[in-house]
Every structure is written in C-alpha cells, then in structure tokens.
Design brief:
Blueprint: E1 2-6, H1 12-15, E2 16-20, E3 30-40, H2 42-48, E4 65-73, E5 87-91, E6 99-103, E7 108-109, H3 116-136, E8 144-147, H4 153-165, E9 168-173, H5 176-184, E10 189-192, H6 198-205, E11 211-216, H7 220-226, E12 230-238, H8 251-257, E13 260-263, H9 266-272, H10 276-290, E14 297-302, H11 306-314, E15 321-325
Parallel strand pairs: 8-9, 8-11, 9-10, 11-12, 12-13, 14-15
Antiparallel strand pairs: 1-2, 3-4, 3-6, 3-15, 4-5, 5-7
Length: 328
C-alpha cells in the first residue's frame, strides 16, 4: 500500500517519503481500517521534527486523526468490537496511509449524518475544546471568551464550542479573510491581531473588564499580551505554543489580578482517566447533532498532497482543518 513514511527525525519536506510499504495485518485485539479521511494538525509537524511530547518510533507513518471503514478483524476480539463495514474514528498514528491496523477498543463510532471528513476534523480539536472549556475553565453561559488563532482548526472549534455554551466570544486572527471567517463562525467580535492593539481593543469591547477566559494555543508574544486582559477571577488556558516560543508569566501579575493560568493537556487526561475519550466524543456528537458545531474544513486533498498540506499548515496558509483522503 501507499503511505507517507519517515525513517529519521527532521522537517517534513526532508524526511517524509511517499512509499510503498507492506499491507498491515490486524493482530490480536485489532481491526483493519481502510483510511477514508485523515485530519492534519500542527502537532503532526512537531512530531515529525521530534519536538512533540512523545517522539515517534521509527520507521513512522504520521497522521493521528483517522476516520475509516472496518474491513478485517484480528483475533481475540470481544462483542464490543466494531463489525466489518462499521464507520469508525481513531486517535493514533498511521493515518497517512491507505490502510491501518488499530486496537478495536480505541475505535469510536461515527454517527449517521456525519461524514468521514467531518469526523476526522473533529476528534482532536473539539475533544480538546470540550475538555478545556468545560473541565478546565468551567465556562458558564454569560461569561466572555477570547480565542487566539481563531481561524485555525483548534481556534475555530473553540469559537463554536464557547458559543454553544452561551458565552460571548471574541477571536483573533491574521488578515481580513481570516477575521471574516471567524465572524462567520458566530464570534461576537473578530480582530486582526496584526492591525490592532490587542489589549486596548479587548478592553474597549469589554468596558475595561477584560475577558473571563482566554483560549490560547499560540503562546509567545500573543500570550504576553492576552494575559493582560484576563478579567478578575479569570482563567487563561494554555493550549499550545504554535508561535514556537514558550512564554513566562510574572507571578505578581497573577496575584494582583486574581486570575488562574490553567494547563490543558487533553492527551495526558485521556491516558489517566479510563473512558474519558468516549465521554468527550459523545459530548461532541451531541453538539453536532443539534447543529451547534460543525467543523471548518478549508481543504481536502489526496494522499499525494499531504506534504504540501503540512507545509501550508506550518506556514499559516490554512484556515480550519485540512483533510487528506488516502484513497484518492
């Protein structure tokens, strides 16, 4: 089968190769999937570069948000295993390939009415958002939220989820087209961080109070600015560092303004709490069923286009989610 494979750590353009590799065989407790859609995200790039929390074991096929059809069973499966022909969603590795063998217990059902592309676009971004806003921020209806990188996959999901909870939502994005996209997602206000003073702008629209929750996946200089506009008793959610710089916050500022800086590591949460992935996915599916959330998918490409897609994501040329269809 065809797959994007790496045998060394490095930049995607240097180490990824579209190769012919042996067809996978499902082992004990596993099922074999035809990969219909694979969602790409910025952490995929970090993983390929060896900069993510967990370094990949080589040789490695990236692609962690996998939507597919069960086509074969391994041994030692119980009655809870998905049947052949079932549509399932998996968070793992190996999605940039035509087929992948995965643990049956990791498979989540894709509901009727949700396409493969939508499913692959939702798992990580919306799962992270549900955990961040509900569990970590304890966001309540009537509160206010500022989302950085609000036109990206993580940010666009957060905008929709915060609106679904009943919050007033503001978004930051780079460029007029992305700002308009954020508004179309339902944000109450959207601003070009390259053209406005973030601190003054958010203070103006909140009558000087600041926002109750900041949802920040950027870090760096953006973090340095948005921490200044967290409201009294507010929560600053640390989602990630796409800017490349891990910021620091002065403890006296946190003390004087009585706000909290809250870490959000959804993957570690899932590893520590059995059943959490299914619970969070069920929450996302419920919201999808009501029409309150629907992933922003900017581009769908064949397997051969994955390397260019990663380059576009790394250089901030995308909005929402990019999907790869390995069968095309």
């Amino acid at each position: 089968m065809r797959a994007w494979q790496m045998t060394e750590i490095g930049d995607p353009s240097d180490v990824l190769e579209l190769a012919t590799v042996p067809d996978p065989e499902p082992g004990p407790g596993e099922v074999l999937l035809n990969v219909e859609s694979c969602g790409l995200k910025f952490p995929d790039i970090l993983q390929i570069q060896g900069k993510y929390q967990v370094r990949p074991t080589l040789p490695f096929i990236p692609g962690g948000e996998i939507a597919g059809t069960v086509v074969a069973h391994g041994s030692d499966l119980d009655e809870s295993a998905p049947a052949i022909g079932d549509r399932v969603l998996v968070m793992g590795d190996g999605g940039l390939a035509e087929q992948v063998a995965v643990a049956a217990r990791q498979c989540l059902p894709i509901p009727d009415g949700m396409g493969f592309d939508q499913a692959a676009a939702m798992l990580v971004n919306y799962g992270t958002g549900v955990f961040a806003l509900r569990n970590r921020a304890r966001l309540q209806a009537g509160e206010s939220v500022l989302v950085t990188a609000a036109a990206g996959g993580v940010g666009s999901a957060a905008v929709q989820l915060a609106k679904a909870i009943g919050a007033t939502v503001y978004g930051l994005a780079g460029g007029a087209e992305k700002v308009e996209m954020v508004r179309s997602l339902g944000a109450d206000g959207a601003f070009d961080y390259r053209e406005v003073d973030i601190v003054d702008t958010i203070r103006d629209v909140t009558d000087g109070a600041g926002v109750d929750v900041v949802y920040d996946a950027v870090g760096g200089d953006i973090f340095d600015q948005v921490r200044r506009i967290v409201a009294w008793d507010g929560r600053l959610l640390v989602i990630g560092f796409t800017s490349g710089r891990i910021p620091e916050a002065p403890a006296n500022h946190i003390l004087l303004k009585n706000y909290s800086i809250v870490g959000v590591h959804w993957g570690a949460h899932l590893a520590r709490r059995a059943g959490a992935l299914r619970e969070d996915w069920d929450s996302v599916v419920e919201l999808f069923g009501t029409g309150k959330v629907d992933p922003l998918i900017s581009d769908v490409r064949p397997l051969s286009g994955a390397l260019d897609a990663l380059d576009d994501i790394g250089n901030r040329r995308t909005v929402g989610k990019v999907i790869i269809r390995p069968g095309e």
